[in-house]
Structure formats: structure tokens, C-alpha cells
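testing teh design pipeline on a random one, pls ignore if ur not involved
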């Protein structure tokens, strides 16, 4: 099974001003979605999503500042993953994979008893 991971890091919290910069990102509201290459009985790919937030550091003194209007999902995703570290990113992706495995081969299901 192959899982494709997609990071959505487009929603951010900013400080309106910080030093001489405006709209400085300090917190990212991220969403990580994993989509399996396997399909369910309806023909839809198995997928699951997890969401959370990640604080990102302010630009270091002397570092180039990227204006808010120039930010992209890829740039902010890079900041987010760097702030988390490789180990945490791997844990999140492993958690997504485990959830998809449980969707494909559940170990428990909820049922309703008739009247």
C-alpha cells in the first residue's frame, strides 16, 4: 500500500507588526491528509486527516523576511515541518498510515441492535 501525504498549512496566525516587519507568522494551523492507493467498496480511496497547530520561530535577526503576500503553502509547510523536526513528522505520517490500515482492516466496528 502506498500513501500520499498532503500538508495544508495555509491558515496562520500573525503578529500585525514585529519590529519593522508586518504580518509576521508565528503559528500555523496545519492539516495533514493521507490518501491510500487502495479503494473501498464504493470505489473511493481510503483517507484520513489530522489537524493541529505548530508554533514557528520568528525570522532570525539579519535573515531575509518573506512578506505575507509572497508566502505559499510550500514555504509555510517547510517552516512547519522544520519546527516539528523529522521525528515528529515521521510519527504523524505513521499515525495516518495506522489509521488507514484500521479503515481497511478494522479490529472493531459499531453496530446497532434491533428493537
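output:
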Amino acid at each position: 500500500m502506498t500513501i500520499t501525504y498532503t500538508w495544508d498549512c495555509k491558515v496562520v496566525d500573525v503578529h500585525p507588526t514585529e519590529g519593522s516587519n508586518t504580518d509576521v507568522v508565528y503559528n500555523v494551523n496545519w492539516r495533514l491528509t493521507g490518501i491510500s492507493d487502495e479503494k473501498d467498496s464504493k470505489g473511493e480511496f481510503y483517507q484520513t486527516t489530522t489537524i493541529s497547530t505548530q508554533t514557528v520561530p520568528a525570522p532570525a535577526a539579519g535573515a531575509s523576511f518573506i512578506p505575507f503576500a509572497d508566502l505559499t503553502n510550500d514555504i509555510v509547510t517547510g517552516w512547519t515541518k522544520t519546527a516539528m523536526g523529522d521525528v515528529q513528522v515521521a510519527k504523524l505520517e505513521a499515525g495516518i498510515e495506522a489509521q488507514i490500515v484500521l479503515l481497511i482492516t478494522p479490529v472493531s466496528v459499531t453496530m446497532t441492535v434491533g428493537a
